[in-house]
Structure formats: C-alpha cells, structure tokens
Amino acid sequence: MEIKDTSGDENDEQDHKSTDKPQRITACLVNAAFFGALGSSYLYGYNLSVVNAPTLFIKAFYNRTWLERYEEPISADMVTILWSVTVSIFAIGGLVGALCVSLLMKVLGRKGTLLLNNSFAVISALLLALGEKAGSFEMLIIGRFIMGVDSGISLSALPMYLGEIAPRQVRGSIGQFNAILICLGVFTGQVLGLPELLGQESRWNFLFAFQALPALLQLCVLPFLPESPRFLLMERRDERGAEKAFRAFLGKEDVSQELEEVHAESRAQNTVRMASVTELLLTREVRWQVVTVVVTMACYQLCGLNAIWYYTNGILRDSGFADDVIPYVVLSTGAIETLAAIVSGLVIERVGRRPLLIFGFTAMACFFGLLTVFLNFKDQYSWMPYLSFICILAVIASFCSGPGGIPFVLTGELFEQTYRPAAFVIAGVVNWLANFAVGLVFPFMQESLQTNAFLVFMVVCVLGAAYLFFILPETKNRTFVDISHSFAKINKVPLPDKEMKNVLAN
Q1: What are the residues whose beta carbons fall under 8 Å from the beta carbon of 84, sequence distance 6 or more?
Q2: Closest Cα to residue 393, out of 308, 296, 299, 454?
Q3: Where exactly are the structural domains of the chain?
Q4: How far apart, in whole angstroms, are the C-alpha atoms of residue 505 and residue 501?
C-alpha cells in the first residue's frame, strides 16, 4: 500500500510553492554545514578507507611488539585476530557513540555536542600515531574504538544540526554536506595512503595523525557559529537566542514566520519534553516513521557498498587487476563517489528525496547483477575485468546519488522535535550494527558464494526500493509537522482538523 498525501497536504504543498520565495543560502549557513561536516562526517569517511594502505605495516608492527614483549614470535592466527579487532572495533565504538548521543545533545545542544566530539578525534589521533613509538598495539585498538565513538556521535548530531538550521527550501541540499564530506574523507584516505605519500612503513603513523587536523579546524570555526534555533526555542526556551540564530542563518531581519513555525510545531506536540527511545517505539503516531528509518538505515549499510569500501583491493584483484596498479585504480572510486554526492546535493531540492532513493537502490541492484555476470566470465575474456570495474564505479555512483546521504536527511525530517533525538539513536544503532555485520559476514559470504556474493546485496537493494516506493512520501519543501501528517493514515491516527492544519502549515 502506497502512502498518498492527504487532501489537505497536497493543497498545503501547493500553497508553499506559491508563497515561498527562493531561499538565499547564506555564508553562515554554508560555513556551519561545511565545518560541522569537516570535523564529523569527513572523519568517518576518512577512517573507512585509511586502514587499507598500512595493513601490512601494522601487522608487521604487531609482530615486532609481540616478539619484544613475550620473546617469542606471534602466531598467524593471533595476528589475524588482533588486526580484525583493530578494524571491527571501530563499529563497536560507533554503536557506543550512537547510544550516548541523545544524552549529550540534551545537555550540550547540537553544536556543543559536535564541539565536545572533537576531543575524541584528537585523543584517537594521538593514540594511533604514537602507538608504534610506545610499542603498544593496545593503543591502536583503543584509538580505533575512540574514533568509532566520535563517528557514532557525529553521524547523529551532525544531520540533526543541519536539518534544524536549514530552511525547508534547501534542507536537503544542506543535509547532503554530510554525504559529500563522507565521500571526500574516503577519497582523502585513499590519496594519502598512496606509496608516494604516507603509505610507507616509515610514514603510516602520519596517516592517523592527520585526523586531528579536521577536528582542530572545526574547533577554531564552529564556536563562532550559532546553535540550532529550533533547539534554543523548543528545548531551552531561549527566544532571543533563537531569533538571533535564525537571522544569522537566513540572512534577514524579519524571522517572525520561522519563529511562528517552530511555535506551531511546539503547540501541536503539546510538550517540549524529549521522548525516550522506548516511548518512541511505543508511540502509535510515529510507528511507520520508525519502521521507515530502520529499513532505510539497514539498507544503507546492507546494500553492499561498505563491502566494496572495505574489500575494494580484493574485489579488484579477483576481477583480474595487477597488485601494483590497484591503489591507483581505487582512487577513481573515491573521485566518482565524491562527484556523485555533489551532484545529488545540487539536484535534491528539484528531484526530491524519494525519487533519488528509489533510483539509487534500483540502479545498484542492476549493476550488482551485471557485476556478478562479469565476475563469472572474467577468466574467459581479457576485457571482462574492465567491465567489472565499470560496474563497481556505477554501483558507487548509484549509491552516492541518493542512498549515501538521504537516509540521514530523512531521519531528521520524518520526526518532530520531541521524537527527533530518540529517532537518531535508533537510526544510529541500526546503522552501526549493520555496519559491523557487513564487515564480519562478507568475507565468509564471499568465500562460500564466490562471485555470486553480490546477488545477496542485489536482493537487499530491490527490497529497499520496493519499500520506499510503496511507503515513503516526498518530504522536500515541507514542514516537519506536515511530513508527520503524511503518515497519519497508515499509522491509523486521526488527522488534525482543517483549521489546525492550516495553522501548522504556515
């Protein structure tokens, strides 16, 4: 059953289109989005790719440290276990961060949480960079865990901050800074990991030390930018602060309409107390919003792109590429994903969230199917590896065109202020559990299914696209209350009367 906009919603959206003036994107808004993402999602993307280049050097360090400490060589199995823990504990840290973020944002606010989070990035950088000199592989493992905590917090706090500071006319474009900086972080990790740069045995420490730089840049800029005006008004009751923040972000003096929109949302909720995760899960009025966030976030991780990010070298090697050219071939994947994310950010307010998501998952399913076919015939034709590589690029571009960033935007849009922090906790938990599952299961799945492993991801993409086609309404250029009302019918809750709807929509 597909959700259709209620009769009033369609008229309301037309009213918005007829009365809204084009929204000017201010320097303050762009700075908040860029520097907020630079010290947050950029570091998450960077840490997805940075561990690939120094893998052999870190394992050699584990060997030397074990021999010096215990005066006997380390077993191959123990090296594998230590390295697996080093890589996978990043996701465990992310889960811990996602569970903590709601409390941090309640106490410190959105901007305050992002600023505090920089301390985790700096501490992690120090531990990872100095672990070899200290002769402690435990420092590397703890450093990766702390970096995971940083990423878990930032992937919830940043999208919420961006969603609350941006006017609804450009909310999707501003929200896509999250995805663009993730892709740019992945690309940076690939570039710096080249043998000519920091991908050498004597320099791999600097690969991890680099992650302190974006955090320090954010610490220098973000304190001078405003807090979320919605947070100030609805949770702190600071109307003067909210008005000042709106003026800075919107670049205009008269922000009475924006203040009234937030007041209307507050009146509609009848409370400013933040709901807990348990309350959110038990609230009938947001049941399908929760299901939609869970499905979208699960598909975001289980669609297979993380498997390509984590195991790109192995996939390209299986496709027939020589080892000495693989690091340079991998660079094109980072460039393609960054370009696709930028294009998505430019068109999202014209095309909408729903079409980009459905197109992205559908295209991924098609290219995963083709990739399976090409991998099965790679030994029969010399040109097959190139077709496999084109499919990998197409999968990445399809992901970054929509599924790569829009799930975070949607999580902020589908819920009103009362439920939003709890919704991001649920989204974060699903995100990191699915992330951990892919990293843990894919090597075994690849070993048992061989070239057919990507068919599993194809099925996930098809199911995700089908769910979004039948359930998800369009959310572009609509108020948070208006979006919530689009789910009223499927949630089987009464719609507000016409007069109240008109008040909330204005």
Answers
A1: none
A2: 308
A3: 26-505
A4: 6
Tokens describing residue 126:
């120090």
CATH code of domain 26-505: 1.20.1250.20
Long-range contacts (CB closer than 8 Å, 24 or more residues apart) made by 386-390: 388/319, 388/320, 389/316, 389/319, 389/321, 389/329
Q: What is the pTM of this model?
A: 0.85
Nearest by Cα to 393 from 460, 443, 334: 334
Burial grade of 356 (CB within 10 A; 0-12, 13-18, 19 or more) = buried
**What pLDDT digit, counting tens, does each position of 319-336 carry?**
667 777 777 887 888 888
Name the one residue in this structure whose structure tokens are 């299961």.
441
Cα separation, 282 vs 284, in Å, equals 6
For residues 394 and 396, give the distance between their C-alpha atoms in angstroms, rounded to a whole number: 5
Given a contact cutoff of 8 angstroms between Cβ atoms, the answer to whether 113 and 159 are in contact is no
Residues of the chain below pLDDT 70: 1-23, 268-273, 307, 309-315, 318-320, 443, 495-506
Q: For residue 308, what are its two tokens?
A: 């390509």
